Amino acid sequence: MVTDRASGDEGDVVPRRARSVAEGLEPTGGDDLATALPDSLTIEVALPAQVHEAPEDETAVALVGTGIDPSVIEVLESGTTSISLSEPALVAVTTPASPADTGSVAIADYSRRERMAGADVGPESAAMLTADRLIDPRRGPRSAPEGAWQRFVYRTTLKRVNLGDSARVRARKELDARIDAVLEGGARFVPVLTRKGGVGKTTITTLLGMALATVREDRIIAIDANPDRGTLAERVTKQTRATVRDVVNRAASIQGFTDFTKLVSRDATRLDILASDTDPMLSEAFDENDYNVVADLAARYYSIVLTDCGTGIVHSVMRATLQRADSIVIVSGGSVDEARLASETLTWLEANGYGQLVRNAVVAINTATQGTNLVKLEEIEAHFASRVRQIVRIPYDEQLAAGSVIHWSDLRPLTRQSARELAAIVIDGMPDRES
Q1: How far is the C-alpha of 93 from the C-alpha of 91, rounded, in Å?
Q2: Helix (H), strand (E), coil (C) string for 60-96
Q3: What's the confidence (pLDDT) of residue 156?
Q4: Of 239, 291, 295, nearest to 263 (Cα)?
Q5: pTM exceeds cut of 0.85
Q6: How many CA within 13 A on the CB side of residue 418?
Q7: Do 194 and 331 contact (CB within 8 A), yes or no?
Q8: Are 236 and 405 a contacting pair, CB within 8 Å?
Q9: Which residues pair with 15 in a beta bridge?
Q10: CB-based contact 434:183 (threshold 8 Å)
């Protein structure tokens, strides 16, 4: 309806017909309404006020339309520029890009596992483009199978039929993959210990180190930390007369891996051996501080550090060894007293705050000791299964029983297989650790 706003109170709206009647403009008879209207007529139309409500997201980013006074710009020492506006509630802060950020994108160091889990970690680095991720083994040519029958079929069919590896070969490769697992977070320490001497700690340490070194591409070292004249260096061909004492005395001058290798003997498997002091009088001086010096240097250049410990479990060297340990190997013989002393070693560790190491420990039962044929080994294994993570039997081998240099290639296949299983179990139990 068209209305005419009266000149009276604001908001007083009067209908047009009522206004015409009031002023005597009512048309009569058939007269046209236009002839009754004055020459000039003003009509005001009042429409509802348009209301615009800004969304919350627009309100959150809205800026006050005020000018910026360049004279109040102050450059802070930290490189942040603060600009004060006339509105005290509004301050614009800008941080200039550093030269390192120019033309590059900062990429956080996230693992492939976190990215696969759906973590929002931003763009990937070039290091994530690895061959095992990009190459599909099903599309490329398959390597020749291993196994007598599989190889025969492969050759007689002119390489057209590939049956794949035999079950034994697949088991071997799976064991290799376990031994060669990636260990992140620096060097890992694995002490080999027990409270009784003569059960084969040094032999087990050597076999474990050789099994690791034959598969893994990183560096493995075995340190003889026996304060009572250890014999670990006699299990490999000696290439140096240096000992742990020489490492301690020359620690300040060792500037790289080449300097360190001059003090160790290397086996054909690439296992490095660091001998203990040969003088019984000097070996007593090898204490906790000396071991820490040797261990710190070894951690710079090696991924896995094995420690052949002595029988003195309360010696200060033992304390330093256990404080660094990621996993431990307890060696037991096949006799009653040897098994009992190995179990007491676990009890001592639990009583002195190393319960986690005990639960993650591996027991290696050396069946080459005397009395093994008279003992129920399955009962010994059942006992240790209730206390540790896993048990491995090391069979009798003439080369090991001789107590001389051990040649990995000359060992019996069953002996090598047992050592490889021990190595795989030890690597399986390595706790995750951030780098």
Answers
A1: 6
A2: HHCCCCCCECHHHCEECCCCCEEEEECCCCCEEEECC
A3: 85
A4: 239
A5: no
A6: 21
A7: yes
A8: yes
A9: 3
A10: no
